[in-house]
Specification:
Keywords: DNA-binding. This protein is mostly helical. Helices cover 60% and strands 0% of the residues. It has two domains: 69 residues, 434 Repressor (Amino-terminal Domain) (Orthogonal Bundle); 40 residues, no CATH class.
Length: 111
């Protein structure tokens, strides 16, 4: 998690402020920054949203953070498949299904 510190400093926040946002202790967040512990998937998504960068950037897979609101294919694959390897064919099938849903205005039923 080498980029957590850089991302936090870029938005001028303290460890305590980030920890409060996540609902964890400052020490728990500090352990993420120090590489002593790794955040779970949901926490990674929250951190990316809070810092306005991609999960790939936080994980050290990209040198530059993606602008807020921009989602890379790698972010989507990570979110859908929890980091498991995904073939291009599998990913294309997911994209085709998403397009079908959008074109047919399919919405989940509300309770």
């Amino acid at each position: 998690m080498l980029n957590l510190l850089n991302a936090r400093k870029a938005i001028h926040k303290t460890q305590q402020e980030v920890a409060d946002y996540l609902g964890i202790s400052r020490q728990a967040y500090s352990n993420y920054e120090a590489g002593k512990r790794e955040p779970d998937f949901e926490t990674l998504l929250k951190l990316g949203e809070y810092f306005g960068c991609s999960v790939d950037y936080l994980l050290g897979n990209k040198k530059d953070p993606a602008p807020k609101g921009e989602v890379s294919d790698e972010d989507i694959k990570f979110a859908l498949f929890d980091g498991a390897p995904v073939t291009d064919a599998q990913y294309e099938e997911v994209k085709r299904f998403a397009k079908f849903i959008a074109e047919h205005n399919i919405r989940p039923k509300e309770d």
